[in-house]
Design a protein that fits this description.
Two copies of one chain form a homodimer. By secondary structure, the first copy, chain A, is α+β, with helices and mostly antiparallel strands. Chain A has five helices and five strands. Chain A has one domain: Arc Repressor Mutant, subunit A (Orthogonal Bundle), CATH 1.10.10.10. In chain A, the strands form two sheets. A three-stranded mixed sheet of chain A has the order 4-3-5. In chain A, strands 1-2 form a two-stranded antiparallel sheet. The complex binds zinc ion (4 copies). Chain A binds a DNA duplex through helix 3.
DNA sequence: AATGTTATGTTATATTATATCATCATTTAA
DNA sequence: TTAAATGATGATATAATATAACATAACATT
């Protein structure tokens, strides 16, 4: 995980963005803005606005991703800063698997072009169950 | 647009679902649940719950799609009931273009399989500007 | 120091979504 | 043909997510 923070043409990482990024990286799983807020309160942050500003900045930097299907944010799982990529999210354990290539975005950009559509953002999310959670299901299943 | 309402293994279309579906089809563009509510008030519907229930049902029937990036719902643009498909959404005019093939979902299912990930839902959304809106930009642009 | 700019803090509010429980309608079966 | 069960609707309240608006602080440039 190189020095992505210094990538050009990207907003700089401010104090609050740093705090939020550290939390998301440490957790390694998606957190909602309010879950971030709860974990950042000890640092004196009390307002959603503050968290949302930091999250927005980190998204712009490409250091985290917003998951539209969860209304949550997760730190990027790829080595280099990149454009949109597909992300699979386990609805049981909230683990994420980020696709390491740009095949799907590439296809979508191509298709958009044929429609004369100018892409500003792509969202590709897969909800389901990871292998671990399929093997070991949630304890509270009704065994009927 | 055939008799998709009678598709098997799918919830039936109740009175409220019918009302909501008619609105979404007539509008032809994404509406939020509360925008639907506003338009359905004349029919005596007053509560968000009622609208969300109808929307959920229609999604299950495959007659409408939920757009995660807009928190909105739009009537399906394909001829036959289908699985997930990619949807481009113009952020200016809110027009939508639904991809008419399943190439991307197919690829994603395949990839998920290689990760031993069981897919329950796919979200593929493209935000940007349609050709019309690129030609004729919003009037309130600062011409500086 | 004065100025402009960016980041942060603070308060309030808007928007989106669900929980809960009561009532009504429709089906099923005794 | 009623009683029970099921499914749909209605009604109220509240939870969860997100932004608006404005004030202050930090920082850079001159
Ligand atoms: Zn990433
Ligand atoms: Zn899992
Ligand atoms: Zn469709
Ligand atoms: Zn448009």
């Amino acid at each position: 995980m190189a020095d992505r923070e210094k990538h050009p043409n990207t907003p700089r990482i401010t104090k609050n963005a740093r705090l939020v990024l550290d939390i998301l990286r440490q957790v390694g799983q998606p957190l909602t803005a309010y879950e971030v807020l709860d974990r950042i309160r000890p640092q004196g942050i009390t307002a959603p606005t503050t968290v949302y500003r930091a999250l927005e900045r980190l998204v712009e930097c490409g250091l985290i991703h917003r998951l539209e299907t969860l209304n949550a944010f997760v730190s990027c799982g790829r080595e280099e800063v990149h454009g949109p990529s597909a992300i699979a999210i386990c609805t049981d354990c909230h683990g994420v698997i980020e696709m390491q290539n740009d095949a799907v975005p590439g296809y979508l950009y191509g298709w958009a072009e044929t429609k004369d559509f100018t892409v500003t953002s792509l969202t590709i999310e897969i909800l389901g169950q990871c292998s671990q959670c399929r093997i070991k299901p949630e304890p509270n299943v009704d065994s009927e």
